[in-house]
Each structure stands twice: as structure tokens, then as C-alpha cells.
Amino acid sequence: MPTVCDFALPKNVGDGEQKTSMLMPANQRKKAFDLTLPSGARREDRSILSFLLHTTDADNLQFQFEIGGHTHTYTVNSDTMRVVQEILPPGVLNVAQLDHNSVEFKPLSGDGVLGISDVILWFQRTI
Questions:
Q1: Domain range for residue 87?
Q2: What's the pTM?
Q3: Handedness of CA 23, 86, 74, 69 (dihedral sign)
Q4: Helix (H, G, I), strand (E, B) or coil at 85
Q5: What is residue 10's three-state secondary structure?
Q6: What CATH number should be reported for the domain holding residue 16?
Q7: What is the pLDDT of residues 36-58, one digit of tens each?
Q8: Cα 47 from Cα 45, distance rounded (Å)
Q9: Burial of 40 (0-12, 13-18, 19+ CB in 10 A)
């Protein structure tokens, strides 16, 4: 069966930026982007997470994203707006429940405002 590259966009947010800040209480800092995958999505292959990062007044602003048990941490020390692409290891996609995939972003330490938008999950699937 042929394999193709496919992508999923968040179903719970629009195209606008989702912002969080170290000024918010810790339990309110998380920003989740829920994704639904099509049938045939391949858990055994690597995936790519892409997002637009926008920080303001960042001073040692440390944040992380988590998807399927995989986390990655970043530290930013300046105002920035750039696209980030991260290769994810095999096994992060939930193919048993295709509508139960989510990527969560949260600031961990430092100061500043963290803005995330344009989240795209690229993956392989069998057609």
C-alpha cells in the first residue's frame, strides 16, 4: 500500500495566536491544540511538528511542548517571531483513537509572553 505525507490542523482553535505568560497562574498557562488524524496514520514513523513562535519581552523564557509523551524544551531571550519545526520520534501519534491527539505548550520559567499559532502536525499515512 502506498504511503503519503499528510497533515492535521488544530480543531479547537482558529487561526489566531494563542498567548500565555508567566504572569498567569501555573494551572492556566497551558495552551492545548487538539488534532484529529485520518485513518491510515502511521504511528511507527517519525512526524514533524511545525508552529509559529512569537515571544515578547522574553528574559530567559523557558517553555516546552508535549505530544504523545514526547517533550521538548526551548529557552528564548529576545523578542522573536519565527517558524519552528521539530522532528518527533515514532510512537507519538495516537492511532487507536484518531481524535485524541493533542500538543500542549506551556511556559516553565523566566519572564515574558509566549505566543503560539499556525500549529501543523505532519505525518505519514497509508492509503
A1: 3-126
A2: 0.90
A3: positive
A4: strand
A5: coil
A6: 2.60.120.260
A7: 999 999 999 999 999 999 999 99
A8: 7
A9: middle
